[in-house]
Amino acid sequence: PGKGAFAGKHIVITAGPTREAIDPVRYLSNHSSGKMGYALATQALRAGAQVTLVTGPTQLTPPKGAKLVAVESAEEMLAAVEEAVSADDIFIACAAVADYRLARVAEQKIKKQDGATQLELVRTPDILSTIAHRAKPPVCVGFAAETQDVARYAADKLKRKKLTLIAANDVSDKSIGFNSDDNAMTLFWHDADGELQRRDLGRAPKAQIADAILTQLHEL
Ligand code: PMT
């Protein structure tokens, strides 16, 4: 978007993976690098927004000017977002949040034993849904990482999670999505008549994809 497009707006962005502890030395996580979320933060700052970047563990240098809140687990990420975002803001959920955590985190390192073992997993909170279902929600933008039926699942998430816009990527293609420098996305939203609209963003560096997402959001 243009330079001052988001002047005076506070945009809260989640980025990167979460880590769910198994014991003091092990965790469950995923391949998110944080690149997509950090690119959104950079472009939002360029467009004049005040940016809070709630980030899971990444190797990236945070963009200058963003307020950084570093977290590890899904529950910590939810608490940080709850604290940062209010009704007049925009919330963009780009993090790859773990859907499960350990039912019990072992206090001591788990010793190996003969044969198979099992970990009991329970659901983590859905950060985006929690914020979008507030009595006075901010404008919410979601991502959808799918390996099949990308359009159908994304359109379903747009509705179910009560979003203004959703950006879907096909993460079965290793050259885009998780941990790559490029991405390709399809944006979905509802127009004023409630009709589902879509726009395909072809493969491009994440900075360019981030800019296109924010431009679409600004139009909406
Ligand atoms: O970090 P990179 O390496 O650059 O990779 C970018 C990316 C592939 C991680 C990014 O483009 C992306 O797709 N992010 C969303 C990943 C994801 O978890 O998608 P999902 O379809 O499982 O979740 C749907 C939406 O709900 C997402 O906006 C997600 O942030 C949110 N969510 C999901 C689960 C949860 N417990 N809380 C959430 O807020």
UniProtKB/TrEMBL annotation:
GO terms, molecular function: FMN binding; metal ion binding; phosphopantothenate--cysteine ligase activity; phosphopantothenoylcysteine decarboxylase activity
Pathway: Cofactor biosynthesis; coenzyme A biosynthesis; CoA from (R)-pantothenate: step 3/5; Cofactor biosynthesis; coenzyme A biosynthesis; CoA from (R)-pantothenate: step 2/5
Domain of life: Bacteria
Domain DNA/pantothenate metabolism flavoprotein C-terminal: 7-219
Stretches for region Phosphopantothenate--cysteine ligase: 11-220
Any single Gene Ontology cellular-component annotation: phosphopantothenoylcysteine decarboxylase complex
This protein's record includes keyword Metal-binding: yes
Residues annotated to bind CTP: D99, K109, P125, D126, I127, L128, F143, K157, K161
Keywords: Decarboxylase, Flavoprotein, FMN, Ligase, Lyase, Magnesium, Metal-binding, Multifunctional enzyme
Record bears the keyword Repressor: no
Cofactor needs: Mg(2+); FMN
GO biological process, one term: pantothenate catabolic process
Summary of the function given for this chain in its UniProt record: Catalyzes two sequential steps in the biosynthesis of coenzyme A. In the first step cysteine is conjugated to 4'-phosphopantothenate to form 4-phosphopantothenoylcysteine. In the second step the latter compound is decarboxylated to form 4'-phosphopantotheine. Catalyzes two steps in the biosynthesis of coenzyme A. In the first step cysteine is conjugated to 4'-phosphopantothenate to form 4-phosphopantothenoylcysteine, in the latter compound is decarboxylated to form 4'-phosphopantotheine.
Protein name per the record: Coenzyme A biosynthesis bifunctional protein CoaBC
Species assigned in the record: Pseudidiomarina terrestris
